[in-house]
Design goal:
Elements lengths: L1 H149 L3 H22 L3
Length: 178
């Protein structure tokens, strides 16, 4: 049965070829033309695409180069600004150190001068206090001498008081005649 089926199938193919053979050839010709045209269009599109890619690549490369240049310029500017800032800060540091040293020296001189003035003032104050003390001591001695000179001797005073006491006793005796 398979041989019979194969024979039937082959004869059907022959009949089909006879009936549709011209149409099939025509279709093949059309497909070939369409295929050729498609291949030509694809080749043309590939060429245009390559041109666009090359042009776009050129633009991108140009933009990248421009950005690199901008970054390089900005980087150089920042490096220069950084160097200038470091230089300025270094100079200000030196100026500050010099001013601080001068201020320290001036303060040291002022402290030494104040110490000298304080010692001198202390010495002068001691001398003035000693002078006033001696003056007061002299005044005290003079006042004491004056008191001593006006003061009655104890023996003289006791004799004087004894004499007064005797007179008083005698007066009392005189008044008592009773």
């Amino acid at each position: 049965m398979t041989a019979n089926k194969d024979a039937t199938s082959a004869s059907l193919d022959q009949i089909r070829n006879i009936i549709t053979g011209d149409q099939e050839r025509e279709n093949r010709k059309r497909f070939k033309t369409v295929e050729d045209r498609l291949n030509k269009d694809i080749a043309q599109l590939r060429g245009e695409f390559k041109k666009q890619v090359v042009a776009l690549s050129g633009e991108v490369d140009g933009e990248v180069d421009a950005l690199r240049e901008d970054i390089s310029v900005e980087s150089d500017a920042r490096v220069d600004a950084h160097k200038a800032l470091i230089s300025k800060l270094t100079e200000q540091g030196k100026t500050f150190d010099a001013k601080l040293a001068a201020l320290s020296e001036r303060n040291s001189k002022n402290i030494r001068q104040l110490a000298t003035d304080l010692k001198t003032g202390n010495r002068e104050l001691k001398e003035e206090i000693n002078l006033h003390f001696r003056e007061l001591e002299d005044e005290f001695e003079a006042a004491l001498e004056e008191i001593r000179s006006t003061m009655v001797n104890k023996e003289d005073l006791s004799g004087f008081l004894a004499e007064i006491a005797l007179k008083l006793v005698n007066k009392k005796q005189i008044r008592r005649p009773t």
